């Protein structure tokens, strides 16, 4: 190794060159021109791709690759072929513009997850990227279903496959499915800026358990499910679609023993270490290694280092910052013409070296390049301070690798509090990367730290890294997933509707009964209850169904008579039930039957007083007065505060009014309703089943009930 240049440049395409070995027969037999390895030469630009129109892969070539991947030290690997159109196994597929499959994830999701919001657009590109994102997840779904065997556990990783859990759940209802997000998860205020926010959240909720790097990320996720989707949630998980989706925290680790072997046992590693030490003899070495992303905080690191040299002049000419930045893999960062992070960093380096450097010494050594593993681990070993100033990070394995490499030096680690590993490394020096003066002070503190304190801190950090490895992480996740599967009854989860089976049963039946809820079933849930108006398609469908003399179609709703008459009353064949069964209107009739006519309504005054008390204290809430039932709505209020107030209100009603009167307090979607106990949807449903049966004590041959809330599961 050249001692004058210990950090050798590694070309960006170095990974494309594979060794020619007898065991690498598939690689040596070039499949076609497009698959040929690109030779690495630092003095030359990589050649242009020979097939700009795309790469054609024949069935034989696919078979060869799949055979090669079928066995290895990491187990069987199965490829997913990303092409435009569905292909048959015997057809040649065309692979072109493969970057398109990542564009939605990396241009819409990645910035959002890292608290970066781009400006408004016309939405055309986003819609095109979304179609590709759907296709990507669908192709993964198809291949997993093809390979799946009963009892398999499927573990999905990261934001590129947010939709995959739900797609798999629809295809295999009882699948054991986990999801882990390696990236951060933002607060609900940011998630609400995403046009496809509901689709993304609903997609990942198809998993049985969702794992995050830190508790704050998991808390943000559950809050989003409540605020965006309206699902009940707590720190343990989310109640969605009749099932409990567990949410838990699993800080990731590294293969510490493998890192140890590479850092201390690799050939020529000691030569590389000595080369760097000789080059910077007499200097304290601060090391930073990051990707060239704006979220990695390289600019903040350089600005803080400049302030450090200003405020602590005694360290001038005695400290060198070696900053290595590898090119980003995120398309949004690579291709955005407005992204000037590279130029900003270069200007900062020039400014610092111009102010505090000389002809013989530059305090910042900047290497915008890839590092070989040998150079990387050598750099971590020689460091006197490790400096990580990321402003947003799901995990940061560099911090863990640094700790392993410092098993002899015991050099301190300065770690951003916004790093995903900060919570698991309390013995590191935590800093706020936006507090440049605070970072400068931390650098001085680290450089002046006594040897015994350095050793004590490192021993604790080292023990954690060696104990909490990536193998331990995966075992903990899978064990917790299986525990949750056994702890929560998944049988109550709403299964995917088998449409083919339903149609067969419908056609065979002579007598059919349909019972539909209104809000959330025939119309979407909206902020203003009066705005929940059925679409023309829904009305036409109801009219067609009820026109068949073999069909009995009923709307069983919590709505009052006036509302149902206004929007459903023009369909004479339709049966209507209002206020959860307090009133019913038979088909081809204009008269409403009051089932609660003889009931004492004295309780209403007491309930109104309680509701009024909570309305005054809950902004956005209001009272809906019906003829029998009373409803307190908090759909317009803050979801979490509204839910809290609803729990308090329900507790007060159950301890007062419900003990003195024969009434029931029911919690619905963003509402509380008080009504007589003797009437509910279940009572009406039982009455209709008996009324429309094929004979005494016999139910109709076909019954379809559709609802969206616990109130639709009334007692019968």
Describe this structure in words.
By secondary structure, the protein is of the alpha/beta class. It folds into 4 domains: 99-253, Rossmann fold (3-Layer(aba) Sandwich), CATH 3.40.50.2000; 258-332 and 339-468, Glycogen Phosphorylase B (Rossmann fold, 3-Layer(aba) Sandwich), CATH 3.40.50; 499-595 and 679-712, HAD superfamily/HAD-like (Rossmann fold, 3-Layer(aba) Sandwich); 603-676, Trehalose-6-phosphate phosphatase related protein, domain 2 (Alpha-Beta Plaits, 2-Layer Sandwich), CATH 3.30.70.1020. 40% of the residues lie in helices and 16% in strands. The protein has 25 helices and 24 strands. The protein has a 6-stranded mixed beta sheet, sandwiched between helices. Strands 11-10-9-12-13-14 form a 6-stranded parallel beta sheet, sandwiched between helices. A 6-stranded mixed beta sheet has the order 19-18-17-16-15-24, sandwiched between helices. Helix 7 (197-204) crosses helix 8 (215-229), helix 10 (269-279) crosses helix 14 (373-382) and helix 22 (603-617) runs antiparallel to helix 23 (639-655). It is elongated and about 100 Å long. It starts with 24 loop residues before the first helix and ends in a 10-residue tail after the last strand. The relative contact order is 0.07. Residues 1-5 and 9-42 have low confidence and may be disordered.
Task: Write a brief structural summary.
Helices cover 40% and strands 16% of the residues. It is built from 25 helices and 24 strands.
Unreliable stretches, pLDDT < 50, 5 or more residues?
1-5, 9-42
| Spatial ordering of strands, largest sheet | 3-4-5-8-7-6
Globally, the shape reads elongated
**In percent, how much strand structure appears in the residues?**
15-25%
- Major pleated sheet: 6 strands, mixed
Number of domains: 4
Discrete helix count: 25
Specify the CATH homologous superfamily of the largest domain: Glycogen Phosphorylase B
Radius of gyration: 32 Å
Highest-level CATH class of the largest domain: Alpha Beta
Under the CATH scheme, the architecture of the largest domain is 3-Layer(aba) Sandwich
**Overall mean pLDDT score?**
85
User: Which structural class do the helices and strands define?
Assistant: alpha/beta
How far apart are the termini?
82 Å
Q: What name is given to the CATH topology of the largest domain? A: Rossmann fold
Number of strands: 24
Fraction of residues in H or I helices:
25-40%
